[in-house]
Write a structure and sequence with these properties.
single chain, 151 residues, alpha+beta, four-stranded antiparallel β-sheet, three-stranded antiparallel β-sheet
Length: 151
């Protein structure tokens, strides 16, 4: 097994994040420029253009915020509209199967939690390496915890 990453570690789709934020800024700037350049628009219509551009940027920023943060006590999964803190003992398995859009965490309560912070979209090899690192961390902490309880 390869060496475990130093904790805390943050996994997030870097290239996807850059693309989303760049597109969001570009959309906001273009829509605002159009609002200012169209002479027939009134102040309310201009404002609605700007607010629409801001809304579009906001949606893309929410898509870009996804991440998985691992530390000594567990994992925090930040998805588009939710955030969940998990203890290491709650994570039974870390899955990234061929064709999966992102990592899925199988949990001790019988559910599965998508972890959008590791997704093979633009950077497939990077996502595979991140999934393996998170899996290794989960396995190392699952093995370590029963020993801690005995001692």
């Amino acid at each position: 097994m390869s060496e475990l990453p130093a904790l805390p570690v943050t996994f997030q789709p870097g290239r996807t994040r850059v693309v989303l934020l760049t597109a969001g800024v570009a959309i906001f700037v273009v829509i605002t420029a159009v609002a200012l350049l169209l002479e027939k628009l009134g102040p309310g219509e201009r404002l609605s253009f700007v607010l629409t551009g801001a809304l579009m940027f906001g949606v893309l920023a929410m898509l870009a915020r996804v991440k998985v943060v691992a530390d000594e006590s567990g994992v925090t999964v930040v998805n588009i509209a939710s955030r969940r803190r998990l203890d290491w003992a709650e994570i039974l398995q870390v899955n990234l199967r061929p064709g999966d859009p992102w990592v899925f965490l199988n949990l001790s309560d019988g559910t599965s939690l998508p972890a959008l912070g590791i997704q093979p979209g633009i950077a497939k090899q990077h996502a595979i390496a991140d999934a393996r690192a998170l899996r290794a961390l989960a396995e190392a902490h699952a093995i370590k915890e029963p020993e801690d309880r005995e001692g």
